[in-house]
Amino acid sequence: MASTSVSRIVPATPDQVWQLIGGFHALPDWLPYIPRSTSLEGGRARRLHNADGEVIVERMEGFSERERHYTYTILQAPFPVRGYVSILRVHAVPGEPEAAEVQWSGRFTPDGVTEAEAVDLFTGIYSEGLEALHTTLAG
């Protein structure tokens, strides 16, 4: 099993960041790669459409409003992995009340690609996503 994690300090309080990204269907609000999210299974799953028109179906596996994080799995996607589990977290930055650290991490088993290729793919997705979040918040 492979894994990767990316974190980024963003210019907003942890509560402000969580308000933007904490909703399971909020990806289109801050991630240009995902322009549309449709609720499935009473809100426990989402059908995402990426910028290329591909479909990604994910299910929320865990959620904590108090700790500001959620965990999800991929059920269907054009990615060369299986057993994908990811967590998106928001942390306070000690001594910086107007900043937050956002961490996006995942673990998965490569399927048809090398471990390095799979890690590079998700490291890029997480990095670009957190850069887009920073841009949105700095707006």
From TrEMBL:
Query: Protein name, please?
Result: XoxI
Q: Per its UniProt record, what SUPFAM superfamilies does this chain match?
A: Bet v1-like (SSF55961)
Q: Which InterPro entries match?
A: Polyketide_cyclase/dehydratase (IPR019587), START-like_dom_sf (IPR023393)
What is the protein's species of origin? Streptomyces wadayamensis
